Amino acid sequence: MSKRFDGSQQALDLTSIHTDPDLVSQDIKVALNRKTNMEAVIKIIEENIPQLTSLNLSHNCIQRLDELSELVTKVPHLKALNLSHNDLKSEHELDKLKGLKLVELWLVRNPLCDLFKDPSSYVSAVCQKFPQLLKLDGNDLPPHIGFDVETPTTLPPCKGSCFGSDDAKVYIQRFLQQYYSVYDSGDRQSLLGAYHDEALLSLTTPYNVQNPSRSGLREYFKDSRNLKRTKDSTMRFHLLKHKRLNVVALLNELPKTQHDITSFTVDVNAYTVSSRLIFVVDDKSKESTRAFSRVFITVPAVNSGLCIINDQLFIRMATTEQISRAFVAPAPTPSSSPVPTLTAPQQEMLSTFSLKSGMKLEWSLKCLQDNEWDLNKAAQIFTQLKTAGKIPDVAFLK
């Protein structure tokens, strides 16, 4: 091995070592696909050249990398590794080397390279395992964005909601209050009025069927469109709900919920008065306490409200900290929100009437109360008054 070591480069070239003339002449065969032989090589490296930075193991019929996992601790300065022209059949073998901070890696002419549908998928999979990689199979990789944090770092505290403008804040808060009062009512059919005819909905959960601890999400699993797990294009299309009837049909099948609206964090990504509104909601939900992130893309509705054209819902188990903070804020008083004082059917009727009329909750509530909670009668009176111009602009959501 000493004749194959370049001290100036701290590089060891063990290419085709089983055909080395000096070994063959003495009838010695060093096969690195044998456990004892590879262990012996690593021991020699550890004892004699622990500062090694480059190792070439190409053309050695290597099938597994179990023994090479020792390189992580025994050869910590290794930056370049050549495993080309071997017999590695699975990308999972590379997981055994993930602790190495490699900047150069060669894998060409291994069976695992043929498992990827295109070169970009191959590069992406390898770079996920070795994020500091600069060269793969001799080719320069595009620069990656990352941070080497050597010492424990505490992330800054999460900031609150960002609405962009006061108008957007009023608009969205009313919308969310109406939407989730219906969502939590037990009958989500009235949400039809909140969705565009061509609306899209996707539901995602990180739930793993092999992990029993995630059983709190089991009820969502069959509808989860997790693209990292769902590879079949037909199934991906099937799980993407298109048109509002299909969207609300799925929402009706999901478990009953109770949301802590005081815990919502809202980020408005894009907002214009005449165009679409994109906002993200984060929340903790009760029962087996779950949390969610949700992206709504909305456009102005005919009734001056919001109409959802795209809904991306990601459901996960809540953390211990989130559970401790959930449902501890005081409930809104009747003066700030009339909804909590109503029965569930009345809350649903109020939300439906407000969505369809475009009026604020307090004005919708008054109209329903004046008409003894007769939805059809209230709608008729509303239409008459609106046509006559007797409802002030302040009654409507801007």
Automatic annotation (TrEMBL):
<keyword id="KW-0433">Leucine-rich repeat</keyword>
<dbReference type="Pfam" id="PF24048">
    <property type="entry name" value="LRR_NXF1-5"/>
</dbReference>
<dbReference type="Pfam" id="PF03943">
    <property type="entry name" value="TAP_C"/>
</dbReference>
<dbReference type="Pfam" id="PF22602">
    <property type="entry name" value="NXF_NTF2"/>
</dbReference>
<dbReference type="InterPro" id="IPR001611">
    <property type="entry name" value="Leu-rich_rpt"/>
</dbReference>
<dbReference type="GO" id="GO:0005654">
    <property type="term" value="C:nucleoplasm"/>
</dbReference>
<feature type="domain" description="TAP-C">
    <location>
        <begin position="344"/>
        <end position="398"/>
    </location>
</feature>
<dbReference type="InterPro" id="IPR030217">
    <property type="entry name" value="NXF_fam"/>
</dbReference>
<keyword id="KW-0813">Transport</keyword>
<comment type="similarity">
    <text>Belongs to the NXF family.</text>
</comment>
<dbReference type="GO" id="GO:0005635">
    <property type="term" value="C:nuclear envelope"/>
</dbReference>
<feature type="domain" description="NTF2">
    <location>
        <begin position="171"/>
        <end position="315"/>
    </location>
</feature>
<protein>
    <submittedName>
        <fullName>Nuclear RNA export factor 1-like</fullName>
    </submittedName>
</protein>
<keyword id="KW-0509">mRNA transport</keyword>
<dbReference type="GO" id="GO:0016973">
    <property type="term" value="P:poly(A)+ mRNA export from nucleus"/>
</dbReference>
<dbReference type="InterPro" id="IPR002075">
    <property type="entry name" value="NTF2_dom"/>
</dbReference>
<dbReference type="InterPro" id="IPR018222">
    <property type="entry name" value="Nuclear_transport_factor_2_euk"/>
</dbReference>
<dbReference type="InterPro" id="IPR032675">
    <property type="entry name" value="LRR_dom_sf"/>
</dbReference>
<dbReference type="InterPro" id="IPR057125">
    <property type="entry name" value="NXF1/2/3/5-like_LRR"/>
</dbReference>
<dbReference type="GO" id="GO:0003723">
    <property type="term" value="F:RNA binding"/>
</dbReference>
<dbReference type="InterPro" id="IPR009060">
    <property type="entry name" value="UBA-like_sf"/>
</dbReference>
<keyword id="KW-0539">Nucleus</keyword>
<dbReference type="InterPro" id="IPR005637">
    <property type="entry name" value="TAP_C_dom"/>
</dbReference>
<keyword id="KW-0694">RNA-binding</keyword>
<keyword id="KW-0677">Repeat</keyword>
<dbReference type="InterPro" id="IPR032710">
    <property type="entry name" value="NTF2-like_dom_sf"/>
</dbReference>
